Amino acid sequence: MRIELICIGTELLRGKVNTHGAYISTKLAEIGLVLARETTVSDDPAEMEQVFRAAFERSDVILNTGGLGPTFDDLTREGWSKVLSIPLERHPSLARTIHERFRKRGLKMPPENVRQADVLRGARVIPNFVGTAPGQMLEQGGRWIVLLPGPASEMVPMMEGTVVPALRRKFKPRPYASFTLHTFGSPESLIDHKIRPVIRRSRSLSREEWLNFCILAHSHRVDVKAEARAGSPRRLKMILGRVKAELSRAVGRDLYGEDDEMLESVVGSLLLRRKLKLALAESCTGGLLGEMITRVPGSSRYFVSSVVTYSNGVKQTLLGVRRETLVRHGAVSAPTALEMARGAQQLAAGSINSLSPIEGEGGVRGKLSKTIGLSITGIAGPDGGNRDKPVGLVFIGFAGLGRRFARRYFFHGTREDVRQRAAMTALDLLRRELGR
């Protein structure tokens, strides 16, 4: 069965963000149905007619959003009436309901609003309890045509209350499930290369079963999604369980989580499991890494501090970075990143500026062994770079778990790209060290 979505509205082609496809595809997937195509079309009648006719020829279910209002450019009803050669009929009860909505708000209904009571002959009316435009659902020539209003506040209740249950009853889809694996550290092309053998091996399913893969490159991660349908929940669980295990092995250490997991929440869980604390020292990221970590509820159980040290003077006074290190190597260097990480670790343990009279040296040493220091220093741009140290150069320092090191990276893109990539890379470095 083929399902298609048509989003109607010139404003959607002029910069207005449209999230209907993501929402509708998710709701369909929950009942085992898959959206095959999404098309956005302007309010031009000729364009609409062309899109409607093509959809009617190729799809079993055509979902439409938008164009059901009272204004001159709301022409979805008229467009489908022409394509299907089915007249529009005005429903007096709907007209009264629309008129009553205006009366309750103390407004006089414009005459144009009565057009919203026009329904394709034979269509089922979908009540609108939020706005004035009712939805419509019509079966014609073995196809289902569903008309829904554009505003999400009106469309969503109709989808969940009427459309999704009707589709489930009509098509009785087989059990469906999916998972998404999140990776960091390798480009999309390399992840694709790693998982291709798994995809090839997974094509041998029975005619009643269906398995699909997709790879999604985001700005700072690559996702691998697998979705399947099968004849029974048990069979479905077996198929996806096997595929997930094979994909995980193929991706290797680049895999950091799945579905709703975030890199920062995965790192937090690892810190908690090992009863470790984390302290940060940030320069070019300006506190971004600390902000990411504290997005996770309960992060106070493992996150100690974040020191933003843009100036060399503050690096020396707060983190104990040596002046000779800064003079010889510069603020953006591996030695400085290493001393920043060590300084963050010591500051969190209380061993830089003063010692707690209660803890003493033994207490500080104990805290140091349970605290990880992580640092970032670099040139985010757009200015500040040179031939030896160009914009995008970043060093990340690590101190903890009996290891101390700094690594060099180079990131392309805007200032924000460099900052985001540096913070994510530092988090991923920490994840890999905690998982050693």
Describe the protein's architecture and organization.
The strands form four sheets. This protein has a six-stranded mixed β-sheet with strand order 2-1-3-8-7-6, sandwiched between helices. The protein has a five-stranded mixed β-sheet with strand order 14-13-15-16-17, sandwiched between helices. The protein has 436 residues and is an alpha/beta fold. Strand 13 (277-282), helix 9 and strand 14 (303-308) form a beta-alpha-beta unit. Mean pLDDT is 93; it is low at 354-361. The protein is built from 14 helices and 17 strands. It is elongated and about 85 Å long. It has helices spanning 20-30, 45-58, 76-84, 92-104, 152-171, 188-201, 233-251, 263-273, 288-293, 312-319, 323-329, 334-349, 360-369, 415-434, and strands at residues 3-8, 35-41, 61-65, 88-90, 118-120, 124-126, 135-140, 143-148, 176-183, 210-217, 222-229, 255-258, 277-282, 303-308, 371-378, 393-400, 403-410.
Rounded to an integer in angstroms, the radius of gyration calculated over CA atoms is 29 Å
Numbering strands along the chain, what is their spatial order in the largest sheet? 2-1-3-8-7-6
Average pLDDT metric: 93
The SS-based structural class is alpha/beta
Count of helices?
14
Unreliable stretches: 354-361
Distance between the termini: 47 Å
- Give the beta-strand count: 17
Classify the oligomer. single chain
